[in-house]
Amino acid sequence: MKRPFPTAKIGFLGGGQLVRMTLPAAARLGCEIHVLDPDPQCPASALAHRFSCGALDDPAALRALVEANDVTTYEIEAVDTTTLLTLEAEGHCILPSPRIVAIIQDKLKQKEAFAEAGLATAPFLACDEPSVDALIAFGAPLVQKARRGGYDGKGVTVFTDLIREDAILPVPSLLEAHVDFSHELAVMVARTPRGETVCYPVVEMVFDPAANLLDTLLAPARVPEATAEAAQALALAAVEALGGVGLFGVELFLTRDGSLLLNEVAPRSHNSGHWTAEACLTSQFEQHLRAILDLPLGSPEQLRPAAMLNLVAGAQAKGPATITGLEAALAVPGCTVHLYGKAEARPFRKMGHATVLASSPAAALEAAQSLRNALRFGEP
User: In the 8-state DSSP scheme, what is residue 165?
Assistant: First the structure.
């Protein structure tokens, strides 16, 4: 089949590090990337083929992006889906569909969609007016999640026993039973318009409790093969229940009794898939493009054990971004450092990540964890 050059013009809603890391794959496939972002210094602004500075809820800016490209997709799901649904109805290609993104944007609707499909999740309840009495009635331990707008650890509060009024998020929320889990797992799933699917190996995630952000990741996860296969099946079922086309990051809990529960889904490339750039035959970033362009999906085969460490600015970080310890990190065998090009350091801001390949999962994890105190950003 003959294809024009560029093979596709792709619009990205958001210009953060996910697009920045997708650009090499786009270049290999002969695609041009057009980014819309409100920040003129966003990580992809200087590297994309075309950059437009504009809000992701500005109907005019959204229309201009969508009309200028063959397909439009997402770097972040905090977008105006009403306008995008109108554009989709007019015949423009937007993947995943804004209908799906509208469900995912609202954590309650997302949970309800999974429950309606018969997929296992933690018990939950809508709470439009959170109060001490409402949380006590639901029962601790519990997690309060803002229905909309939560991102990178924001919009989530965990109550283990004492429910303090000053800690309650004053917004319409989802109350969820706190899961007694042994592992937090994730699976990247790709699905094309024709229905072709692939699942990446299951990974194990460890979160920083202070920042509520992913700290370290191990691939493959230290779980039995049967559990990994069940996790992949549940992740795929979640994407299919949504009718999703594109790339999806699916987070799950493995409970102490061996059950799997869906946590959340992201309709885009995801922090839990960064390791694929070094460790798999096809990176999540290339897979995203293949899926939305309805190209044959690449093999997700993992070549070597891998561990990833998120590089996050410290609690006191502020001002122009600075990095210390880069030389030491690059001296670690099998280590690849990705810096996101963010000019300013802020408390707990993601500044980059490091992936280490090794002969065993344990060796990779030990090497990645050794970088934690070496690489620092924006500290006095």
Answer: G
- Report whether 74 contacts 22 (CB < 8 A): no
- DSSP for 209-220, written as a single string: TTTTEEEEEEES
Tokens linked to 210: 């202070």
Q: Reduce the DSSP state of residue 74 to 3 states and report it.
A: strand
pLDDT in the model for residue 319: 84
**Contact between 303 and 289 (Cβ < 8 Å):** no
Out of 3.30.470.20, 3.40.50.150, 3.40.50.720, 3.30.70.360, which CATH number does the structure's domain 181-377 have? Answer: 3.30.470.20
- Integer Cα distance of 183 and 47 in angstroms: 37
Residues of the chain with CATH 3.30.470.20: 181-377
Question: In the beta sheet, which residues pair with residue 206?
Answer: 216
How much is the mean pLDDT over the chain?
A: 94
Distance CA 95, CA 254 (A): 30
Which CATH code is given to the segment(s) 8-94? 3.40.50.20
Q: Which amino acid is at 331?
A: A
What count of other Cβ atoms lies within 10 Å of the Cβ of residue 35?
Answer: 27
Kindly report, residue by residue over 182-228, the tens digit of the pLDDT: 999 999 999 999 999 999 999 999 888 777 788 999 999 999 999 99
Q: Which CATH class is domain 123-177?
A: alpha beta
How far from 270 is each of 22, 75, 190, 319, CA to CA, in Å? 11, 9, 12, 27
